[in-house]
Amino acid sequence: MLYSRFESKAWQELFLPRLSTKQVTELPKDKGVVVLPIGAIEQHGPHLPVYTDTLIAEGLLTTAFEQLSQEDQVWMLPPLPYGKSTEHVNHPGTFTLSSQTLQQVILDIGSSVKASGFRRIVLFNTHGGNNDLLNMIARELRIETELMVFRMNGMDFKAEIASLFSPEELSYGIHGGDVETSLILAIEENWVEMALAPKEFYDYEHALDIKGGPYVAWVMDDLSNSGISGNATEATKEKGIEILLRLGSKIASTLQVISSFEMRDLKKMVTTTNRKE
Ligand SMILES: [Zn+2]
């Protein structure tokens, strides 16, 4: 079953800012992780709200956190609703940060996570346009704060939902298609205008694809007239619910692993024997 946003564990019991400073101080922190959801506010075609990516972060984490308890010590921060959406900037309703601003905001929040005594942070991202930058920021944050820093993507476990979608959608439905539209139908049905849902894929059979080989830098208007790439006409609420449940459970178990992960265990303790005689 699904849990409504704001009435769930993610927004009540395990919502970090619900605690007082005394309670945060007293939390055990040797194990434990703070999750910072990062989305975007950007055009998603004529049928979806511009809040789509942030809403997906909220929906996935709401579902995932239902499987967690206080013993897991996984805490959620409020989502950072703005991302780097410069590839959509000429579409009204897109509200973007520059890469420099996004980097500084995340570094500042990370420093506060460190100052609050935690040892781990997860950057939980649901906007593809944030990916490259977040990988860089994650490493900067590690260097600046010595926190253990993890970057998760909402779609990290895409194989879990492969049976629900066409191969074309799974590979090239990169924005506002069947997957994202089904998710929003499951999370905020009334925010979707299905009568306007487009079907449009970019020409991935062209000499160069945007997903491999030499990298082709693109903005959305290079790929699409409708603002999407995917088949939104196939979207259903039932598929959206299934995505939330399947991905939510993988996200929950991954957060449990992260919560007790120790960076020092990554390095093998090999005794070197190649000393010169
Ligand atoms: Zn999106």
Topology:
Elements: H1 21-26, E1 33-38, H2 52-65, E2 74-76, H3 99-115, E3 120-125, H4 131-145, E4 148-153, H5 167-172, H6 178-187, E5 199-200, H7 220-223, E6 230-231, H8 237-259
Parallel strand pairs: 1-2, 1-3, 3-4
Antiparallel strand pairs: 5-6
Helix pairs in contact: 2-6, 2-8, 3-4, 6-8
Residues 44, 52-53, 127, 175, 180 line the site of zinc ion.
CATH hierarchy: architecture: 3-Layer(aba) Sandwich
Strand order of the largest sheet: 2-1-3-4
Distance between the termini: 67 Å
- Strand proportion, as a percent range, falls in 5-15%
Count of helical stretches: 8
CATH homologous superfamily caption: Creatininase
Count of all domains: 1
Bound molecules: zinc ion
CATH class: Alpha Beta
Mean pLDDT across all amino acids: 95
CATH topology: Rossmann fold
Cofactor: Zn(2+)
GO molecular function, one term: hydrolase activity, acting on carbon-nitrogen (but not peptide) bonds, in linear amides
InterPro entries: Creatininase-like_sf, Creatininase/forma_Hydrolase
Organism: Halalkalibacter akibai (strain ATCC 43226 / DSM 21942 / CIP 109018 / JCM 9157 / 1139)
Summarize the structure.
This protein is α/β, with parallel strands linked by helices and 277 residues long. The protein has 8 helices and 6 strands.
Notes on the structure:
It comes from Halalkalibacter akibai (strain ATCC 43226 / DSM 21942 / CIP 109018 / JCM 9157 / 1139) (Bacillus akibai). InterPro entries: Creatininase-like_sf, Creatininase/forma_Hydrolase. One of its GO terms (molecular function) is metal ion binding. One of its GO terms (biological process) is riboflavin biosynthetic process. The chain has eight helices and six strands, in the order αβαβαβαβααβαβα. The strands form two sheets. The protein has a four-stranded parallel sheet, with helices on both faces. Strands 5-6 form a two-stranded antiparallel ribbon. With 277 residues, the chain is α/β, with parallel strands linked by helices. Zinc ion binds next to helix 2.
